[in-house]
Specification:
alpha/beta; Rossmann fold; Dihydrodipicolinate Reductase, domain 2; 2 domains; nine-stranded mixed sheet; seven-stranded parallel sheet; 18 strands; EC 1.5.1.7; NAD(P)-bd_dom_sf; oxidoreductase
Length: about 400
């Protein structure tokens, strides 16, 4: 008996719903709830399983969430709304006795700042309540942490250097579009870069450091150093790490658009007065940009995300590269969504599967790398995100 409530009916929520429905032996009772109920109903119609329930909920409102949880009585909530809702949903989970999983760490709306402290602060309360919270269970964060845990468990005595490399070599044939929620995406990319070295965090200008990295089946792509939230938990959970960095590819066309958007003030997240109405420019921009959920149909090419690791085994230095390539078209054929939503939604479903199978149950607030990676890695191969390994190759980093 696996009763699950999915919150959020965007690109990622759609993929989670498809994958949960495909694993009906584990997920016996499913509800999708979001701000706009019609979007949930549309997903159910596409899946073609009228047993899946839907509901309208404002996930900023704890009382509304608690009422919904007490009514449906899920064992676990998969939170794939926006990072702004993480704390209200966690609070409601505590009040109603529900386990929790998400794919992105909490961000306050008024400042683009990423850190786990707000969610880690819930650890004792989840532990006391006997409830499991699983943080950051998408691809990155998510699979990136599980790959690292798998490497640490099987191939290294000490991990010294970790580089997470994220390439989207797809083409959606739009002049400019983001692959997931534009507001969240642009906030992330326009931040200062940051990486960890010898016990300290080093800050860079936004997109200051970049280099060509070669991705399997894709070739060389200019890759930019960004701050990414899983670096914070990975250096804490693997203290032998001397340096941890995150790289993401961007095309010149994308960067030119981004520069213009910033220069003209459209990336601002503070309120401005427009004809007596308060608007946030970045939220307005989201309303006029292509909807990431509509990109799938004409999306060609693939993503390639992995971990490049250097460290010691039996006193000898070795390197290890583990990665997945995901085709946008294959993702679209299966779920109606492009590869970025797919690579996030599939791991979120697997995290919940791990919980319901009893593999990942640990009262408290946990990052994914704190659990046994083996059953998760096995499921990645079965659920559409197969991985590949390269031993002792040139990491380029
Ligand atoms: P979308 O914007 O497509 O979807 C978000 C959904 O949440 C929408 O259905 C939206 O409703 C709903 N929502 C927003 N606010 C509320 C609210 N207050 N109450 C109820 N529902 C609400 O985003 P994505 O699907 O692209 O992304 C979902 C999450 O996945 C994000 O947190 C994102 O950061 C994360 N992510 C993680 C990745 C990873 O690898 N770890 C990669 C990509 C994304 P409405 O439609 O009415 O606006």
């Amino acid at each position: 008996m696996g009763k699950v409530l999915i919150i959020g009916a965007g690109g990622v929520g759609t993929v989670v719903a498809h994958k949960v429905a495909q694993n009906a032996d584990v997920f016996t009772d499913i509800m999708i709830a979001s701000r706009t109920k019609e979007k949930c109903d549309k997903i159910v119609a596409e899946i073609g399983n009228p047993q899946i329930k839907t509901a309208k909920v404002d996930a900023d409102n704890v009382a509304e969430l608690v009422a919904l949880f007490n009514d449906f009585k899920p064992e676990m909530v998969i939170n794939v709304a926006l990072p702004y809702q993480d704390l209200t949903i966690m609070e409601a989970c505590l009040q109603a006795g529900v386990n929790y999983l998400d794919t992105a760490n909490y961000e306050p709306k008024d400042v683009a700042h990423f850190e786990y402290s707000w969610q880690w602060a819930y650890h004792e309360r989840f532990k006391q309540a006997g409830l499991t919270a699983i943080l950051g269970c998408g691809f990155d964060p998510g699979v990136s942490g599980i790959y690292t845990a798998y490497a640490a468990k099987h191939y290294f005595d000490e991990i010294h250097y970790l580089d997470i490399v994220d390439c989207n070599a797809g083409n959606h044939h739009k002049a400019f579009a983001t692959n997931f929620n534009p507001e969240i995406n642009i906030r992330e990319i326009t931040q200062n870069g940051r990486y960890y070295e010898n016990g300290k965090w080093v800050t860079t200008e936004p997109l200051e450091i970049h280099k060509d990295l070669t991705y399997p089946n894709i070739g060389p792509k200019d890759s930019y150093l960004l701050y990414h939230e899983e670096l914070e938990s990975l250096v804490k959970n693997f203290p032998t790490i001397k340096r941890a960095r995150f790289w993401m590819t961007f095309g010149q066309e994308y960067l030119t658009h981004l520069r213009v958007i910033q220069n003209i003030g459209m990336a601002r997240i503070d309120e401005v007065d427009y004809n007596g109405v308060k608007i946030v420019p970045l939220q307005f921009l989201k309303a006029v940009l292509p909807n990431p959920q509509d990109l799938g149909e004409n999306y060609e090419g693939e993503t390639s995300i992995g971990c490049r690791i250097r460290g010691l085994k039996d006193g000898k230095e070795r390197t290890y590269y583990v990665y997945n390539n995901c085709s946008h078209q294959e993702a679209y054929k299966e779920t109606g969504m492009q590869g970025v939503s797919y690579t996030t939604g599939v791991p979120a479903m697997i995290g919940a599967l791990m919980f319901f199978k009893g593999e990942w149950k640990r009262p408290g607030v946990n990052n994914v790398e704190e659990f046994n990676p083996d059953p998760f890695m096995e499921q990645l191969n079965k659920q559409g995100l197969p991985w590949h390994e390269v031993f002792d190759g040139d990491l380029e980093l």
